[in-house]
Structure formats: C-alpha cells, structure tokens
Amino acid sequence: MLAYTYVGPERFELLEKPRPTLIDPRDAIVRVTLGSICTSDLHIKHGSVPRAVPGITVGHEMVGVVEEVGAAVRSVRPGQRVAVNVETFCGECFFCRHGYVNNCTDPDGGWALGCRIDGGQAEYVRVPHADQGLTPIPDAVSDEAALLVGDVLATGYWAARISGITSDDTVLILGAGPTGLCTLLCARLHRPRRLIVCEPDPVRAAFVRTHWPDVLLTTPDACRDFVLSHSEHGGADVVMEVAGSPTSFRQAWECARPNATVTVVALYDEPQVLPLPEMYGKNLTFKTGGVDGCDCAETLRLIASGQLDTTPLITHRFPLDRIDEAYRLFESHADGVIKVALTPPTGAKS
C-alpha cells in the first residue's frame, strides 16, 4: 500500500509498505476513506516533535471503514464507518479514568498515531485500543463532516471546555487557522457575550467574516487596543492562544484581564518565555497541553444535530498519490487553503 513516511528531518516520502496487520487483540485495521494534513505533521517534518520516529507513516486525521478487528474489540465491527481519534488510550489507567487521555500510561498511549506508530496518510491503518480510539459515524453524517472530529475539532472542543466560558465573557481567539476555526466553532456553543478573533492573514480573516459575521475581527498590531475597547474589565475574560507565532504567547497574556483564563492550544517551534515579573498581579490562570480527545461521540452528535459543521473548512482535495502537492499547498497557505482532504489514491478500489 502507499504510505506517506517520515524519512528524516525535512524529508517525507510516499513509499510502498506492507498493509498493516493485527498485533494485539484490542487492535483494528481501518481502510482510510478520507484523511487530512495537520500543522502537527509539519512540526514533525521540521524537527519540532523529537518523539517522532523516523520511518513511521505520518498522519493522524482520518475516517474510514473497519476492515478487521481483534478478538477483544467490542465497540466496532467490520464494515462500520468510523472516526479515528488522534490519541490512543487504554481507558483504564489513572489518567484515562479522569479524562486525561493524552497522558495515558499505556506504551501506545497519547499521541502515537503518525508520531510513534504508523498513522493514516496511507491506504490502511492499524488502530490500537480500538474500543476507545474509534467512534462509529452516524448514518446521517458524511465522511467529510466527520473528518476533523478525531483531532482538530477535538482540540477546539477540549479547549473551549477547559476554558470555562460563560455567557458573560468576552473571548479572544488568537489565530484563524484550522484549529483556531474549530476552537471558534466550539466556543460559540457556549454562547459568550462577545467573540473576537485576531488573524493577520486577510484571506483567513475574510473567511471568518463570511461564515460568522457576528464575530469581531482584529489584527496582531491592533489587537491589544481593540480588545481593551471591546471589553468591560481591562481585557478578555478568556484568551485562547491557537496561533503559535513568535509573538502570540506574549500577546495572549497581555490581552487578558486580571484573573482571566489563558488557554494555550498552540504547539510552538521554539521555547516560550513566562515573564513573571511583568505579569505579577494579573493573577492569570494558564491552561496548557495536548488535547484530551475523549469527546468524539459528543461532537459527532452535535454534527448530526446540525449544531457543528466543519465542512466549510475543507477547501481542497487531493488523492493520496498527489500528497506532496497537497503538503506544499497546505504549508504555503496559498489559494485560500484551510484544510485539505486526502482521498484514496487514483485507481484504488472503494
């Protein structure tokens, strides 16, 4: 089968690999019907994810059809359409029992797919702990509507949930890339008083304006003054940092009011500085870390009921055998790209 592979620093290649097989009774084999490219894949390519293993198949955003299950799998069966979770988790350890599945203590726990074990930018993928890592897709939900459920939408939903957004809040979201937009969609579920998005790219800002005209927009240069003039208590009540730029971490805490919550969703290429003397007295609460992707059934329910719709984010489509071209487009931000859908390779059997 074709599989996009992390060969080494700055090198991904489309290679022929054997189709995966069951290794553990809790495994499932999924035929990938639709995949995507995540910014985290670019971080692997550029060496910002030291735990990534050269030789692995990359990719952790995908939906597909279950082809085969191990003897211990109970929640899915061959022939079912499923969303694949970015994280593999046992469901039994201390962290899983408390909902902190990103910190699962199993050897394959946390973000493993496409990082430490073979992922889904391929024709088939082996999913460990399939009972936790696969969520059946309702019949009324298309593959495209479910594509982002397992990772980027899970991240947005988790970020909004842990931020504790209330109806009185002014919420600032830094970044209108794919994760920022999913965070925006999920923040809207909490019906805050005011939503502000800061985005330097005029094309992405226009995308927000077109799809969510009630959202206020600003740019990084104007952000602090804009937030001050559109909030009641000297800054945003909740700041969600999704941009991951060299300056966005500082901007996040500077735009927060005293005693605000700053949720850091972004993955950075460089270490960030926490200048405590400058922020002393603001009494900020920081929430950081990898997504705990344990809400996929709920987000699929919200999609089926019409409360969430990420399909506008899928702006381009490529077959797997043109994945190099898809990566070039996604990384360049050209042609208004938000998310790319990867279909099976040209000539593949459905």
Your description of this structure?
This protein has 350 residues and is an alpha/beta fold. It folds into two domains: 2-151 and 293-343, Quinone Oxidoreductase, Chain A, domain 1 (Alpha-Beta Complex), CATH 3.90.180; 162-288, NAD(P)-binding Rossmann-like Domain (Rossmann fold), CATH 3.40.50. It has helices at residues 39-45, 94-97, 130-133, 143-146, 152-163, 178-188, 202-211, 223-229, 248-254, 276-279, 296-304, 323-332; strands spanning 2-8, 11-16, 28-36, 62-69, 81-84, 124-127, 134-136, 170-174, 194-198, 216-218, 236-241, 256-264, 285-288, 314-319, 339-343. The strands form three sheets. Strands 3, 4, 5, 6, 7, 14 and 15 form a seven-stranded mixed sheet that branches. The longest helix is centred in the middle third of the chain and has 12 residues, at 152-163. It is globular.
Q: Which spans have pLDDT < 50 for at least 5 consecutive residues?
A: none
What fold name goes in the CATH topology slot of the largest domain?
A: Quinone Oxidoreductase, Chain A, domain 1
Q: What coarse outline follows from CA principal-axis ratios?
A: globular
Give the helix tally. Answer: 12
Measured by DSSP, the beta-strand proportion falls in 15-25%
Q: Structural class of the helices, strands and pairings?
A: alpha/beta
The CATH architecture category of the largest domain equals Alpha-Beta Complex
**Main sheet overview:** 7 strands, mixed
Question: Residue share in helices?
Answer: 25-40%
Please name the fourth-level CATH homologous superfamily of the largest domain.
Medium-chain alcohol dehydrogenases, catalytic domain
H/E series: EEEHEEHEHEHHEHEHEHEHEHEHEHE
Radius of gyration: 20 Å
- Strand segment tally: 15
Distance between the termini: 14 Å
Quickly name the level 1 CATH class of the largest domain: Alpha Beta
Mean pLDDT: 95
Number of discrete domains: 2
